Every structure is written in C-alpha cells, then in structure tokens.
Amino acid sequence: MPLFNQLYNFAHWLAHNRDEAEDLVQETYVKALRGFTTFQQGTNFRAWMYRILRNTFLTSRTGHKAAMTVPLNEDEDGPVVEAATDTQTPEAILIDRDHQDFLQSALEELPLHFREIVLLCDVEEMSYQEMADLLGIPIGTVMSRLSRGRAALRAGVQQKLQRAG
Amino acid sequence: MSTDDATQQSGTQHDQWRAQLDRYLDGELPADQMRALDAHLRSCPACSADALARVQFKRAVKSAGARFTPSADFCNRIQKKIGAKPRRSWTYTWALAGAFAVLLIAGLLTAYQQRRNFREQQFYNEIADLHVSTLASSNPVDVVSTDRHTVKPWFQGKIPFTFNLPELQNTDFTLVGGRVTYLGQVPGAHLIYQIRKHQISVFIFPEDLVALHTAPHDAKAHSFNLHTFTQDGLRYIVFGDVAREDIDKLSAMLQAAAHSS
User: Fold this and answer.
1) Which of 28-87 (B) contact A at CB < 8 A?
2) What is the DSSP letter of A1?
3) Is B88 part of the contact surface with chain A (CB cutoff 8 Å)?
4) Which site in A105, A133, B27, B129 is 20 to 30 Å from A118, CA atoms measured?
C-alpha cells in the first residue's frame, strides 16, 4: 500500500498512541479513496496523503487538544536567534545510539506544530515548499518554525542529558 | 575602525552565515548563496564545526524519528477493510477499484522516483567525496604527467578497460596526472586536469556501474558542477568547482577523443 509505513509512523508521532494512529491511517486511506477525484494529477501525491492524515488528526479530539497548545504570542515570521551549537552537547552525544531515547522523548514532548515540521523535514525529507503546501503556511513561516522547532528539540535533549548527569 | 568594532562586525557576519546553515543543510539555499557558504565553511573552523554538529543532529532525528512501524495484523486488517467495502453496485466497485489502482500507481511512482533520486544523490555524494579527498591528499595522483601518452598507458593492467584522452594543445586545460580509484568496489580511472588555478576530476567507470536516468546529464552536487555522459560502454564524469562552461568544454573534448577511438 502506498506510503503505508511512513504515514503510520507520522500518525503515531502525532497521536502518541498505537490505536489512534491505526484509526488515523485507516481513515486517511478511506478518505483518499473516496476523494480521489479531488486529487489533481501531476501534483504532489505524497503531500496530498499527508495533508489528509494531518487534517484528520486535527479534527480528532486528541488533535484538537494538541493544536490548542500552540502559543498565541509566538512571532513565527520574526528573526530567529541562532544559538551557537556547542560541539560537546547534544549532536555529538546523539551519535551514540544508546542516547536515542533522549531524543525520542524530547521529540514526543515538543509542541505539535514543532514536532510535525521537524519530522516532515528531517524524517520524511520534504522540501520547504512541500511543507508549506501541506501545512498551509508561507515558506517564511516554514523556515522560522523549523528553526525554532530544532532549537527547542536541542534544548529538550540538552535538558535530559543534564538531568541524566 | 577600533578592534572592538572589527570583532563586533566579524561576529555579526558570522551570525549571518550561521543563520543560513539550516537552509544550507536542508538543500534549500539558492545556488549562489550555497557556493558562498561553501567557501566560508572551508575557511571557518567554527562554522564548519557548527555545520557538522547540525548534520549529526539531523541524522539523529531521522533515525530516532523513524520509530514506529505498523503491525502485520493492522496492515492485513486495513487491506481487507478497504478492499471489502464496496458492495453497493458494480459501477461503484469498478470506480473504487480504479481509484485504488491509480492511488497505488501514484504511490509506486512516487516511491520509485524518490529511490532513483536518492541513488543518484548518493552517487553524486560519493563522486564529491572522491574529488575532495583526492585534492586534499598530499599525493593526489599516482602518475604525474602532462602527457596523455604517458598517463593512458600507466592504467594498463590496473583497470579492466581502456580509454582515449584528448589533445590539450592550444586550450586552457592541462593534464596533471591520474590514479586508480574505486566506486562501489569497481576500479576506474581518476584523472586530474587543471584550468587556471582550479582542478577538475574526470572519472571513468564501466557504464553499468550506475544507471543515471539521463545521459548526457548535467547536475550540481554540493554546489560543484558536474557533467556525465556515456561512450562505448564507459561512463565519464567530469566534476569540479569551475564554471559550467569549462566543465562542458572539457567534456566535449573527452567525448570527441572517446569517439575517435
């Protein structure tokens, strides 16, 4: 089935729950089949499927709750203050696979709007344009949100590493 | 300008480069900015350490993010569910089957395209690595000669094919030498040419080593220019940081020489 594994992985990250991820994926395929006439040939099929999945999630109870946690005062298009990455911190340590659970739990704790964009870019390797189409936001917002998402993820990992001593 | 002012200005410039690093690593910077940042990274240890850290982080996220896999049971259930739904009419059944087939084909095509792009990208990355690591080496070539009649015979018995090299008289190009190289454990020829201060790598491998989807083919890899073509069962890859015209000119001469063999 096309994109089955990837959609399931993304759904699980969104829903944090196996049963809900399965429901989401199933509903996505049913909607895709029913609404196939709305898919414009020659456009991005992958982005179309992810958009259905994401919209399905956002209209679910869990998705609705998660979407409510987006900070209202966030200036997404404003300049992103780039923190210098310390070579002794998360990145170098994360090469070690034993530390991947720190990264996975930091990813889980990221707010939805950061989690989804980091996953779409780094795991699904989508282009900025694809993400802008999928999320329905301008490319500038994709860039700043991604940058903030990565910074938040790094900070989360850093915190976990420090706590672990 | 005081020393403090100079430090502050250099710090600001540094921050500007840094602000572009994520877009650079995501492959989203325009070509000219990509080249400029490339050059900066080569000369700035702090920024290149930062870039390396970000690459490591990106890789770690990719690996950690691909965490959940659907169970075989779920896969079967969903296939049955989607396949078993239509019972209303033959028209509906056929329409749904058709939609599913198109969906499947679109998915397969997307997956195929992605795999092909990934393989090509991997190939270009390996070529870039070979080029950069050779030029960084203290002995970039094993046969040092500007004479093609010395360089070509040197490869005899070392690689399982032979090739012709172009006459460079009255051109800006100079042959520096050559070495045997390996790509995917297959031996091939790596020749180095020079134009002005720039060095260009020419790789020659058996054609079936890599199936690139078009030939001849122009591409960019890590803001280097590349031209590749096939001739008489061999794949030629001309690669370097020079202008596209120089790459094309050398490619044309190589192609003419190969054709005359």
Assistant:
1) 28, 46, 49-50, 52-54, 56-58, 60-70, 74-75, 78-79, 81-82, 85
2) -
3) no
4) B129
Q: Which of B195, B117, B184 is nearest to B203 (CA)?
A: B184
CA-based nearest residue to A164, from A90, A85, A86 = A90
Shortest alpha-carbon distance between residue B155 and chain A (Å): 40
pTM over 0.80: no
Among the partner-chain residues B18, B68, B99, the one whose CB lies closest to the CB of A82 is: B18
Buried b (16+ CB within 10 A) or exposed e, A71-81: eeeeebeeebe
Give me the count of residues in chain B. Answer: 261
3-state SS track over chain B:
CCHHHHHHHHHHHHHHHHHCHHHHHCCCCCHHHHHHHHHHHHHCHHHHHHHHHHHHHHHHHHHHHCCCCCCHHHHHHHHHHHHHCCCCCHHHHHHHHHHHHHHHHHHHHHHHHHHHHHHHHHHHHHHHHHHHHHHHCCCCCCEECCCHHHHHHHCCCCCCCCCCCCCCCCCCEEEEEEEEEEECCEEEEEEEEEECCEEEEEEEEEHHHCCCCCCCEEEEECCEEEEEEEECCEEEEEEECCCHHHHHHHHHHHHHHHHCC
Residues of A in contact with B110 (CB under 8 A): 2-3, 45-46
Mapping DSSP to helix (H, G, I), strand (E, B) and coil, where does residue A78 land?
coil
Q: What is the pLDDT of residues B211-223, one digit of tens each?
A: 554 444 556 555 6
Is the pLDDT assigned to residue B257 strictly greater than 70? Answer: yes
Give just the sign of the alpha carbon dihedral A47, A51, A57, A58.
positive
Q: Tell me if A118 sits within 8 A of A110, measured CB to CB.
A: yes
> Inter-chain contact B60–A100, Cβ cutoff 8 Å?
yes
Amino acid at A90: P
Tell me phi and psi for residue A5, to 5 degrees. Answer: -65, -45
Point out the least confidently predicted range of A23-27, B17-21, B206-210: B206-210
Chain A residues with CB under 8 Å of B46 CB are 84
Overall residue count recorded for chain A in this entry: 165
- Of the listed ranges B115-129, B145-159, B168-182, the least confidently predicted one is B115-129
Distance from the Cα of B75 to chain A's closest Cα (Å) equals 8
Contacts of A45 in chain B (CB under 8 A): 106-107, 109-110
| Residues A103 and B60: beta-carbon distance below 8 Å | yes
